[in-house]
Design a protein that fits this description.
- The structure holds two protein chains of two kinds.
- Chain A is mainly beta.
- Chain A is built from no helices and nine strands.
- Chain A is globular and about 40 Å long.
- In chain A, 37% of the residues are buried.
- Chain B is an all-beta fold.
- In chain B, strands 2, 4, 5, 6, 9, 10 and 11 form a seven-stranded mixed β-sheet that branches. Chain B has a four-stranded antiparallel β-sheet with strand order 1-3-8-7, with no helix packed on it.
- Chain B starts with a strand and ends with a strand.
- Classes of the chains: A mainly beta, B mainly beta.
- At the A-B interface, strand 3, strand 7 and strand 8 of A face strand 5, strand 9 and strand 10 of B.
């Protein structure tokens, strides 16, 4: 069982918007930056969002991040079939002195 | 171009050992913390271990503490993971990643090397 809680799956039609939640606690999300990663099978995971809501160079503005208290959210607008992947949130846990990931959310673009 | 290339994976019997390597290029290796992350078949990402850039402080997931040792050779731009006492549940693809400690995120990842623990 992961320290960070994500929904196992989400789905939406092409062109629509989807959000993926990530719930934690004061020892992790509440006091540390959250980052989000996209992972397609057989490839290296890709950083989508860092420092709660910043997009690295090359990441389109269809991807956004936000945080409130001990929860974070990844938003994806203008869904494309190429967005089908597993998405993970991650952060440092100060109590565990360890990095923690959410369990991952599989995005299906119908 | 920043590149991370893992090697050293393979098939090993339960209780055996393996040493993984991660060859880094395209950035100042000694300036960055590094991490190992794994993904077991059908499972999500699991952080395994991390090491500081200059101070080489080390951190481990409870699942590998006492069995795995992370280290680095800054003169060779290489990160290592020594894995002892391997168990079936250690079967996974192991990837290394650059960890930007100041802002807390994993920037660039390698594609990984596969470790299979089976008799």
């Amino acid at each position: 069982q992961s320290v960070l809680t994500q929904p196992p799956s989400v789905s939406a039609a092409p062109g629509q918007k989807v959000t993926i939640s990530c719930s934690g606690s004061s020892s992790n999300i509440g006091n540390n930056y959250v980052s989000w990663y996209q992972h397609l099978p057989g490839t290296a995971p890709k950083l989508l969002i860092c420092e709660d809501n910043k997009r690295p160079s090359g990441i389109p503005d269809r991807f956004s991040g936000s945080k409130s208290g001990t929860s974070a959210t990844l938003g994806i607008t203008g869904l494309q079939t190429g967005d089908e992947a597993d998405y993970y949130c991650g952060t440092w846990d100060s109590s565990l002195s360890a990095w923690v990931f959410g369990g991952g959310t599989k995005l299906t673009v119908l | 171009e920043v590149q991370l290339l893992e090697s050293g994976g393979g098939l090993v019997q339960p209780g055996g050992s393996l040493r993984l390597s991660c060859a880094a290029s395209g950035f100042t290796f000694s300036s960055y913390a590094m991490s190992w992350v794994r993904q077991a078949p059908g499972k999500g990402l699991e952080w395994v271990s991390g090491i500081g850039g200059s101070d080489s402080s080390t951190y481990y997931a409870d699942s590998v503490k006492g069995r795995f040792t992370i280290s680095r050779d800054n003169s060779k731009n290489t990160l290592y993971l020594q894995m002892n006492g391997l168990r079936a549940e250690d079967t996974a693809v192991y990837s290394c990643a650059i960890y930007v400690a100041s802002e807390g995120y994993m920037d660039v990842w390698g594609k990984g090397t596969t470790v299979t623990v089976s008799s």
